[in-house]
Structure of Phosphatidic acid phosphatase type 2/haloperoxidase domain-containing protein:
Amino acid sequence: MIQLIDTIITIFLRDLIPHNSFFNFVFSFLSLNRFSLAIWVAIIIITTIIEEIHHPGIQKRDKKFIFYFILIFCIQLITVNYVLKPLIHRPRPFQPPRDFIASSTFNYPIIPINTCPADFSFPSGHAATAFTAAFVLSYFDKKRRWFYYLIAVFISFSRIYLGCHYFFDVVFGGLIGSLITWITLKVKYPITKRV
């Protein structure tokens, strides 16, 4: 029953935006395996420049922030890709076995390029990474948190649009990334508002 609900929501969201050359390019661009991380690297660099303008000189807390940012990414990467995915073993929407609805709608990824890895589907690594980055940056820079979370939502949605993930894969990926980040920050680095 849960699989059926997940599939129906996934199909609805996947078809919510027209599949044309423009949106295919946009969501493929956001969803490239290395580029989604590159987006966050660019955002971090820009945020660092803004911080440097307002607070010249590398502060001790800035060094801590960078250290824990890397630490959280490593914890999230290991948890999602090397623990949860192999443990849960859920096929992607375009891979067998599928239920009847999924079989009739997910015969292949929407975009015929290597945007969907061959590993397991649950939870979404892209969503986990996106919300990990958004959570850390928002915790550090509350004034721009809406922007960080908007980017995370777009990256996560791209995985559904392209047919690489089910809805619940993306939701739980985002939740897991956020939870890992929240626990690590609370235990290790109680960041206060800077900007």
The first helix runs from residue 2 to 14.
